[in-house]
Design goal:
The protein has about 475 residues and is of the alpha+beta class. The protein folds into two domains: about 350 residues, 2-Layer Sandwich (BirA Bifunctional Protein, domain 2), CATH 3.30.930; about 90 residues, 2-Layer Sandwich (Alpha-Beta Plaits), CATH 3.30.70.380. It is about 25% helix and about 25% strand. It contains twelve helices and 17 strands. The strands form four sheets. It has a seven-stranded mixed beta sheet. Helix 11 crosses helix 12. It is globular. The protein starts with about 35 loop residues before the first helix and ends with a strand.
Length: about 475
Amino acid sequence: MRLHQIPVSLLLPPSPSSSFSPRPPLYRCCLAALSSNHRTASHRRLSTDSHAPRPVIGQDSVEVLGGSYPRDDFTNVTSKILAKVGRNLHNQSHHPLWLIKERIKAHFYRSYMGRWGNPLFSVHDNLSPVVSVEQNFDSLLIPPDHASRKKGDNYYLNRNTMLRAHTSAHQRELVRSGLDAFLLAGDVYRRDQIDSSHYPVFHQMEGVRLFSNHELFSKVQNGEELSLFERGGRRTPHKQEAHTLEAVKLVEFDLKQTLTALIAHLFGEDLEVRWVDCYFPFTHPSFEMEVRFHGDWMEVLGCGVMEQELLNSAGAGNKAGWAFGLGLERLAMVLFGIPDIRLFWSEDERFLRQFRVSDIQQPVCFQPLSKYPPLHNDISFWLPEREDGGESFTENDFYELVRSIGGDLVEKVSLVDDFTNPKTRRRSQCYRIIYRHMERTLTQQEVRLVHEQIERSAESELGVEGRY
């Protein structure tokens, strides 16, 4: 299973149900690390709410959020994607993503208080999405050859800098700053397929809680005799080599209790929950949380006991803790009944006004806008051949080309035929592109102009040979 599809906060796997599959939770794909690069470090804390110049992709550099990043052979971010940077839907008052974020914040603020009566969990929802590759992958123990690093799955500004693929890219720096309990929310970016539940920009929220030896065992009988760590331990399916079994079980209990309370707050008390064992490079043991919703089991988040190596590298080697991650779009689509992920980017007042409630806990049931008819066109082509006999074409490259040209006019792209000529061994594919505007009726004439541009660009940029 690819990392960006494994269940957890980045642990972000697909599918709340068999038919719904927004990204994996934020923990599943979570990756965090503090870059030593001065430009990235200084830019890391730049508020994305500031009035920074418009992003620009120049011949030699990419300008975004006040930073300039030299282009190289890894640069693949597009102007349409950069135009989303700084929109911060999760911070727009009464936007559906904001509502979900605020409900989660309110629950943690009300349920978990610090020693002096202040909220235990701090909230960080305005960190720059421009991060180093080291932050996004290395700090989370993602191997150098892991599939999740592929250029085809991420948006790179250059070989060393990218748009974060998960909010966990900031996890280590927040722990290093001395925080023991925090929530983190933000926009994340991934190249992916095109349908009603996938979009190249989406939003995640994750939580981290660390415990000292005293905090974890203070309520346990003879707790002063217990320890977080053991020497000479071994890794098993239930624990890391550094942890005692008693510590892991208490951390796991606190994690599951915390998340069960959160989901009950969001979905209602009468909810059936189950935990599924899974694997993530940055937690062990790791779990996916599933709930029975409308008769189907739906995965809602990923979580686990944090790898001690991560805490050691962040200067918190005397503590143990848990982390979780979830997708805000996934929850909003389910809880509010929003059928298409593109709607979150709509500025149509008929959509936005439905979420202007006086109380953030007030139930909201999305009322569909007029359903405009879809138009579909097919595109067929021979895939390019390499001299070594391999193929240089990837589906994500084609999806990205369609997004760059068709934008939000495109509702879905699906592969409808994959054929290999038995004599020449040449391979061809046929994709069906469904066009539908969210706010008006499209004409076949305007769709045809877009479709023809996609056909021409596929030949010139991807090296395919059209079959028209």
